[in-house]
Amino acid sequence: MMITIIGGGPAGSYLASLLAEKEVTVFEEHDKIGIPVQCTGITTKALAEILDIKKQFLTNKITNAKIIAPNNQFIEIKLTQPDLVIDRAAFDQHLAEKAQDKGAKYHLNHKYKSCTKNNGKLELHFDGEIKNFQTDILIGADGPFSQVAKTTGLWKERKFAIGAQARMLIETNPETVEFYVNQGYFGWVVPESEKTARVGIATYEQPNEKFKSFLKRIKTETNSIQEYQSGMIPLHDPEIKTQDGNIYLIGDAAAQVKATTFGGIVQGLMAAEELSKAICHEKDYEKLWKKRMGRDLRIGLMIRKKLDKFTDEKYNKLVELFTQERIKKVLEKKDRDRPSRFILELLLKEPRLLRFLF
Ligand SMILES: Cc1cc2nc3c(=O)[nH]c(=O)nc-3n(C[C@H](O)[C@H](O)[C@H](O)COP(=O)(O)OP(=O)(O)OC[C@H]3O[C@@H](n4cnc5c(N)ncnc54)[C@H](O)[C@@H]3O)c2cc1C
């Protein structure tokens, strides 16, 4: 049984390594895995629960998170388990090497174009040396604008945030990540070291103007920019179909992204695990991934929809509420990948938060 994965990003390559005992082929449009980088690469400890963290792709560990309001009031949270900052190019390359070591075949410089059905098989068409390729199972791990979804009837109108980010020379406290909550954008400074950080914003419109005004806000000049790493982030949508017969979507292609902080690395890996189980044990993939993370993604989306309507003043009040020790304690202990596990506790500790959400 031939399994074909389109996209050699983290979701595609991790899935390829999980399925590598079968016949797996990965097609990637770029000539090098992991390049260009369009990601900040910060994850919670959940990443270490899924795979071994190797020195070769670990850039930094974060033990404090600062959430900063428009009026510059902030809360500082001590993370009981450090966040990890990874080098996305090295991370993607590591996962692809692992998959190849286990037997998966990779074809770089191959852009998937379309698919036709042929006597129960799927015939895939590419721009690249191989023009046509037959497969039994097709998996779209091809990122936010999934061509697999678009050419197999799984595409549904999606909303995107624009992630405008640059690697910058900037003095930081290397142990502290800063998140800026504002009307109109969500900003971050994720340190790589004392001297460099990944600085960015996620917004729905005017990313360049907002990025420049964010740099002013953090008192940084554009001439400290080393490299732009911008990209699009799909907003989660529970209505997106992620499976049709033997065609599947995972990761950004399936919009499996946290709408609160726009992170999707861990979610793509979790989806890969669930799809590998579904294929190996003939289970329903959608049921499996929704059971594992559907509720958290839906709660994240609900929170995002509320936050998108916040004024600066409302953000100021929210951060003020969060400065209370009893609230901070909940945030310190809990995993932000899993809002379903602490939202109730937060609301019970501070019922005024209900007014913000409803
Ligand atoms: C600015 C920015 C910052 C971010 N920061 C974070 C963060 O800090 N933490 C976090 O968890 N998430 C972050 N994300 C989100 C994260 O990058 C994605 O969720 C993650 O990359 C999804 O992995 P994936 O494997 O599904 O897709 P991708 O990483 O997008 O990989 C898709 C692969 O498919 C290939 N491809 C696409 N089309 C084709 C085609 N037609 N044929 C062949 N190959 C194709 C692409 O070249 C790519 O290699 C950020 C995103 C952006 C834009």
Question: Measured on Cα atoms, how large is the radius of gyration?
Answer: 21 Å
Shape: globular
Helical/strand content category: alpha/beta
Amino- and carboxy-terminal Cα gap: 50 Å
**Average of per-residue pLDDT values:** 94
SSE order: EHEEHEEHEEEEEHEEEEHEEEEHHHHHH
Q: Which molecules other than protein and nucleic acid are bound? A: flavin-adenine dinucleotide
**Any idea what the CATH superfamily of the domain at 2-36 and 89-156 and 239-305 is called?**
FAD/NAD(P)-binding domain
**Biggest pleated-sheet summary:** 9 strands, mixed
Please count the helical segments.
11
The percent of residues in helical segments reads: 25-40%
Poorly predicted runs are none
The overall strand count is 18
Would you tell me which CATH topology of the domain at 2-36 and 89-156 and 239-305 applies?
FAD/NAD(P)-binding domain
Quick recap of the structure?
The chain is 33% helix and 30% strand. It is of the alpha/beta class.
Description of the molecule:
- With 358 residues, the chain is an alpha/beta fold.
- The chain has a domain at 2-36 and 89-156 and 239-305: FAD/NAD(P)-binding domain (3-Layer(bba) Sandwich), CATH 3.50.50.
- The chain is built from eleven helices and 18 strands.
- The strands form three sheets. Strands 3, 4, 5, 11, 12, 13, 14, 15 and 16 form a nine-stranded mixed β-sheet that branches. Strands 6-2-1-10-18-17 form a six-stranded mixed β-sheet. Strands 7-8-9 form a three-stranded antiparallel β-sheet.
- The longest helix is centred in the C-terminal third of the chain and has 23 residues, at 285-307.
- The chain starts with a strand and ends with a helix.
- 43% of the residues are buried.
- Bound molecules: flavin-adenine dinucleotide.
- Flavin-adenine dinucleotide is lined by residues 6-12, 27-30, 38-43, 111-112, 141-143, 147, 163, 165, 200, 229-231, 233, 251-253, 257, 262-265, 268.
